[in-house]
């Protein structure tokens, strides 16, 4: 016959015949995977990197050098990534995308009301239609097309933003810190993609890093140097041109 009782020191006593054995009552260790750590860090940074641009637009009266189309594309992509993460049951895909939406949408609204560049506004509508079409075609084409599209979605944010920045003489409304943090966020997203075997994250990391670096390069160019490549119109105040902060 076997029975057990608890000792005064927290141990359990098992009795079997005349033998008494005390077994230490130990707590089970909590294991946190590397993918979880990377996913959590990426989630926090995904929220953080959208804040500087929104804050800068809120503080200033201008949206000089900011592309409205880029922010609109980013908002559409955030919604698409959130849905993709839910379908794939990937928590660390859902949370970064979901938490980046308030800052991106807020910056979009501010850029629109403060006279941001409105070129290529047809892109967000086309991008939303493309995502919807590829999603509907998953039963026929499989998930590969939508995965590639989502991975490249960051292109629709960084490409218009970079083009607008390099064409603009005044980039004072662009938050350099946001693009610097995007590079770090892209690295974390790529790391999670490697750990969790998510190809879309790997594509995103490559494109986001390249695009953000291109924009930071523009912000590092002094106004008088940029004017050699893109002539300043006569109605633009040369002395008022400045770099992003």
TrEMBL record:
The keyword Membrane applies. It comes from the Bacteria. Keywords: Membrane, Transmembrane, Transmembrane helix. The keyword Disulfide bond does not apply. The chain crosses the membrane at residues 32-51, 63-85, 91-112, 121-140, 146-166, 173-195, 201-221. This is PQ-loop repeat-containing protein.
């Amino acid at each position: 016959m076997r029975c057990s009782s608890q000792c005064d020191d927290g141990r359990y006593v098992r009795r079997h015949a005349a033998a008494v054995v005390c077994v230490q009552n130990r707590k089970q260790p909590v294991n946190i995977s590397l993918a979880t750590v990377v996913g959590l860090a990426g989630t926090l940074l995904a929220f953080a990197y959208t804040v500087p641009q929104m804050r800068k637009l809120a503080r200033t009266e201008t949206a000089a050098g900011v592309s409205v189309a880029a922010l609109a594309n980013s908002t559409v992509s955030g919604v698409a990534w959130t849905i993709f993460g839910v379908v794939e049951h990937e928590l660390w895909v859902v949370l970064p995308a979901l938490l980046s939406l308030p800052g991106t949408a807020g910056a979009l609204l501010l850029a629109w009301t403060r006279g941001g560049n409105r070129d290529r506004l047809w892109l967000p509508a086309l991008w939303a239609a493309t995502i919807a079409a590829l999603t509907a075609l998953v039963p026929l084409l499989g998930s590969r097309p939508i995965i590639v599209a989502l991975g490249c979605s960051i292109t629709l944010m960084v490409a218009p933003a970079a083009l607008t920045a390099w064409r603009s003489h005044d980039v004072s409304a662009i938050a350099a810190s946001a693009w610097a943090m995007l590079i770090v966020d892209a690295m974390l997203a790529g790391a999670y993609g490697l750990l969790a075997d998510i190809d879309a994250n790997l594509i995103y990391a490559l494109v986001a890093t390249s695009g953000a670096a291109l924009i930071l390069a523009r912000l590092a160019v002094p106004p008088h140097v940029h004017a050699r490549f893109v002539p300043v119109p006569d109605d633009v105040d040369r002395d008022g041109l400045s770099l992003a902060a």
